[in-house]
Amino acid sequence: MNIIGHGIDIVNVRCIEKLVALLGECVERQYLTAAELNAAGFRSNRFQYLASRLAAKKAVFKALGGDGKQSISWQEIEIQRLPTGEPSVMLYATALEIAAKRGITRWLLSISHTRSYATASAIALQTKAMPSESETTYYSSRQGD
């Protein structure tokens, strides 16, 4: 198992609150996928949830090590919660292509938050020899994309 990349990020929850107050709920739709918005529901800690997902996506972006020539949308990185409670990473479009080219086959993701800050750490792993294109389908893709 090889570590391909590591990213860490911290987000100020109060800054997210101010951003949503200034720009409205379109901020959430810009940063979260439909599945993430659905999981957010009507939580009392909605801003902590948004900040933690944003920190996780930024950490994944850093771990991907994009070359800056390819633009990745926030919608291309989705943070899901497994039945065990463990966070997981789903990639789509350009983010998925970058991960496949770099040989990333697994993610370790940790997310934590307080009332003031949310933080996340993402480690991109290669668990076997570089996969062929046909072996990268387990990352999934949304229907209709």
What does this structure look like?
The chain has 145 residues and is an alpha+beta fold. Helix content is 37%, strand content 27%. It contains 5 helices and 5 strands. It has helices spanning 13-23, 26-31, 34-40, 46-64, 93-102; strands spanning 2-12, 77-81, 87-91, 106-113, 117-126. The longest helix is centred in the middle third of the chain and has 19 residues, at 46-64. The radius of gyration is 15 Å and the shape is globular. Mean pLDDT is 86; it is low at 133-145.
List keywords for this structure.
145 residues, alpha+beta, three-stranded antiparallel sheet, two-stranded antiparallel sheet, globular, disordered C terminus
| Structure class | alpha+beta
Please give the oligomerization state of what you see. Answer: single chain
* pLDDT < 50 runs, ≥5 residues: 133-145
Distance between the terminal alpha carbons, to the nearest Å? 31 Å
In percent terms, what proportion of residues is strand? 25-35%
Q: Give the SSE order as H and E letters.
A: EHHHHEEHEE
Query: What is the approximate shape?
Result: globular
Find the count of extended strands (DSSP E, 2+ residues): 5
The overall pLDDT, averaged over residues, is 86
**If strands are numbered along the chain, what order do they take across the biggest sheet?**
1-5-4
| Gyration radius over CA | 15 Å
State the helical fraction: 25-40%
Helix tally? Answer: 5
Largest sheet entry: 3 strands, antiparallel
